[in-house]
Amino acid sequence: MIPARSATAAEAYRLVRSLQQRLVAGLEQLAESMGSRQRFTAVAWLRDDGTHGGGTRLESADGDLFGRASVNVSQVHYDDRPDKPLGSASAISSIIHPRHPLAPSIHLHISWTEMKTGAAYWRIMADLNPANPNPDHTARFNAALREVAPTLYDTAKAQGEHYFFIPALDRHRGVA
Fold first, then answer.
1. Cα 145–129–146 angle (5° rounding)?
2. pTM of the model as a whole
3. Cβ–Cβ under 8 Å, residues 63 and 36
4. Does residue 76 contact residue 93 with C-beta atoms inside 8 Å?
C-alpha cells in the first residue's frame, strides 16, 4: 500500500493503527475474562490496488461473546489526482454487536481528514444502539462522550441527532 505523502496524515495513520491494536486487545481481554476464546483475525484491502491507500479490518463473528465485531483502520489519499479535493483521510471505525440480547451495539468512527486546500480536521462519531434501551447505560455513554469533548459536546450531540435520524422511520438510530 502506498501511504499518503503528508507528515500529519502519516502520524494520524500511526495513531489510528495504535488505537486499533489497543481496542482489539481490550476486546480480546474482555472475552478471555468472561471465559470466551473469541479472537479477531485480519482482513486487508487496497484502494486501486494500493495506489490510493487501503486498510486492515480486524474482525470476529459468530462467537460466544460477539455476534459480529470489527475494528477497521484505513487511509485513502489522492496525492496524484489533482481533480480530487481530498488529500487524505485516515480513520478507525468499529462496529460491535454483542451476542447477548441485552448488551447494546455500539458504532464509532474517528478520522483525520486533510483537504488539498490545507484545511484539516478530526471527526469523532459514536452511537449506542441497544435492543432494549436502558436509561442508565444511555446516561453513562453520554457522560463518557461529554468527558472526552466537554466544550464540543452540545454542538456534537446536536449534529449527531441530525446525522443519526432516519426520516423514513421518523426516528433516530439508537438512543445516543
1. 10
2. 0.85
3. yes
4. no
Q: For residue 92, which amino acid is it? A: I
Instruction: Please enumerate in sequence order all residues whose Cβ is within 8 A of that of 75, keeping only pairs 6 or more positions apart, or say none.
Output: 1, 3, 4, 9, 12, 13, 53, 54, 55, 88, 89, 90, 91
Per-residue tens of pLDDT for the chain, all 176 residues: 899 999 999 999 999 999 999 999 999 999 999 999 999 999 999 999 999 999 999 999 999 999 999 999 999 999 999 999 999 999 999 999 999 888 888 899 999 999 999 999 998 888 888 888 889 989 999 999 999 889 999 998 888 888 888 899 998 888 88
Cell digits for 99? Answer: 451476542
